[in-house]
Design brief:
alpha/beta; Rossmann fold; seven-stranded parallel sheet; six-stranded parallel sheet
Length: 400
């Protein structure tokens, strides 16, 4: 612990004078292995936005960023950030164990860290440094068949131990908090829900820019938009089938744009596309650059995000900030995040997804009401607030 101020005193029951510690600044070590140049996805963006705000808010603290490969200078946000590369590159269960239990544990001791922040749901069991761990979801509990064998075994063995080891567990929604408490014997007092925020790049765009984006990406037509990795849990195959039925039912000229990398087990997506009558209106954009996603979101007619399971569902908040309504699922965290700003459907029902697509196109009053509701709902999500709340948890741990 750095510089302690003993100027404040309390009296105990025996009227003895005892000091109250006030930490002037902390040395905060952070697992930043998902800060990958031009490859930021869900946890990477979470890490980036949270830390960027926190470093700016706490200029007197020292931050040590632990990378598992050469890093980009764009992630060294200020002079109070020290980047450290630790071997090996942690992208496999055996290497995860090595990196967290040996490399991280040694580095925490070497750099005399006061607290360790791990934003990706992993912890180091080999350290006594107080730990705040962020858990985004426990999808492996609900969809084990969608996870590779070794990874699944690692999660089953290690996640309960991580949750027990960490002094504080931050979840990104109340749903995920309750999900953890239902699945594991964890002290409820140490599990705290802190919402994600939204990048400032997501904002309402004007009609001229919308037209330009539609011309570039959607052959000049309005479009529904999906963004995220393409794998079974995201339910993209049903979205494609529902959109195809929507096209047949309505003769609409709208397109479906799918932005994101193909992850694993995407055979159902290929099958749905191969069986679609309106293939020419379904466009796969692949992995999108950082600057592309806000523009594509802002120019969308509506976001279509009918995932089977989410710990948060960040695209919903991004759509709200762009003034774009959305269709999303009535399960896991999505109703909590959506509020009244979206249409909720059963993600396993093709007919419900199809009907929602038809209604959000035809009912203009509903469309405008959803946009209006999104303007209010988006106020619940702020990276600045999230950074302050997570920092406060760390400060309290160090002080006590």
């Amino acid at each position: 612990m750095r510089k302690q101020n003993f100027a404040h005193f309390n009296f105990d029951s025996n009227s003895n004078l005892r000091p109250y510690r006030a930490v002037l600044f902390m040395r905060i070590a952070v697992n930043t292995r998902f800060l990958l140049k031009d490859q930021l996805e869900g946890i990477g963006w979470y890490t980036y936005e949270l830390l960027k705000c926190m470093v700016e808010q706490q200029p007197n603290d020292e931050f040590i960023f632990f990378f598992d490969r050469p890093y980009s200078d764009q992630y060294v946000f200020a002079k109070n950030v020290t980047p450290v590369v630790l071997f090996p590159q942690a992208r496999h269960p055996f290497l995860w164990h090595w990196w967290f239990e040996w490399s991280i544990a040694s580095a925490l001791k070497k750099h005399k860290a006061d607290v360790f922040l791990s934003p990706d749901g992993y912890a180091s069991l080999s350290t006594s440094v107080k730990t705040v761990m962020v858990t985004h979801d426990i999808a492996h509990v609900h969809y084990p068949q969608q996870i590779a064998f070794l990874t699944r075994k690692y999660y089953q063995q290690m996640v309960p131990r991580f949750l027990k080891h960490a002094q504080k567990v931050v979840t990104v929604s109340k749903f995920t908090r309750n999900d953890i408490l239902a699945a594991y014997p964890v002290d409820p007092e140490k599990v705290v829900a802190v919402y994600n925020g939204c990048r400032k790049e997501f904002q309402v765009i004007d009609a001229i820019e919308k037209a330009l984006i539609q011309e570039k990406y959607a052959e000049g037509q309005e479009y529904f938009f999906y963004v995220g990795a393409v794998h079974p849990r995201k339910n993209v195959h049903r979205l494609i089938s529902a959109f195809d039925q929507f096209k047949s039912n309505t003769k609409s000229k709208k397109k479906l744009l799918i932005g994101g990398r193909f992850a694993w087990k995407t055979g159902e997506v290929k099958l749905a596309y191969d069986n679609a009558i309106h293939q020419e209106d379904i466009l796969f954009l692949g992995y999108l650059k950082n600057e592309e996603v806000p523009r594509l979101m802002g120019a969308a007619y509506a976001l279509t995000y009918v995932s089977l399971f989410e710990g948060f569902g960040l695209p919903l908040v991004e759509a709200m900030n762009c003034g774009v309504p959305f269709i999303t699922s009535n399960c896991s965290s999505m109703p909590e995040v959506a509020g009244d700003a979206g249409m909720l459907v059963n993600p396993e029902s093709l007919s419900e997804i199809t009907q929602a697509l038809e209604r959000i196109e035809s009912d203009k009053a509903l469309y405008q009401q959803l946009v209006y509701n999104g303007k209010k709902q988006k106020l619940a999500f702020s990276w600045k607030v999230a950074a302050k709340r997570v920092y406060a948890l760390m400060y309290d741990l160090v002080q006590h």
